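Notes continue from the previous slide.

Worked example: a multi-chain complex. Inputs as given:
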Amino acid sequence: GNSVTQMEGPVTLSEEAFLTINCTYTATGYPSLFWYVQYPGEGLQLLLKATKADDKGSNKGFEATYRKETTSFHLEKGSVQVSDSAVYFCALSETDSWGKFQFGAGTQVVVTP
Amino acid sequence: GAVVSQHPSWVICKSGTSVKIECRSLDFQATTMFWYRQFPKQSLMLMATSNEGSKATYEQGVEKDKFLINHASLTLSTLTVTSAHPEDSSFYICSARRETGMGYGYTFGSGTRLTVV
């Protein structure tokens, strides 16, 4: 079956540091890949997505590239801010089960001033 | 933007009692609602999918008689954990599907932390 594995947290960084959260997946078909973010007390929000190999999703300074050869979708941001402190979830969805997501366990990121 | 209000955000209940969790779409109609749960240090796992006005479809291994899902209107879906036990303690979160101009979007609730004592 499908699965998503992402690095365990918490990840603690200083402001303006470089952030990478690793995410790898296994899937039987050709899934779309997503990063969701959950700020304290809020629901999961879509951060970015990529629907096919070599696509790069980007939003709010975050980027992730769909790498089929390494089955990865690592999230990166060049200079984090305190406001980026949140839990980040990597997820996939097969096109034939649209709406059903397979999530990773989430990675908590803490950015200190 | 699209908002899903999920209540309660946390609840503590005694073993053997039932707990109801509500998800309400505030500014759109949710024809389909997904319910997930997350045990500590594990992934969010899909429990069931519900379509308005019809019975929910449960994922393998999820007891439909224990986790009752009602989706009676286009703006409200509820999950009732019946006869809760400590092993049901988990984080529950809903996701509502909405139609956008280019297909579908998914809006998540903020989650409910259930602790059964």
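Summary box: The mean pLDDT of chain B is 92. Chain B touches chain A at residues 4, 6, 9, 32, 34, 36, 38, 41-46, 49, 93, 95, 97, 104-111 (CB under 8 Å).
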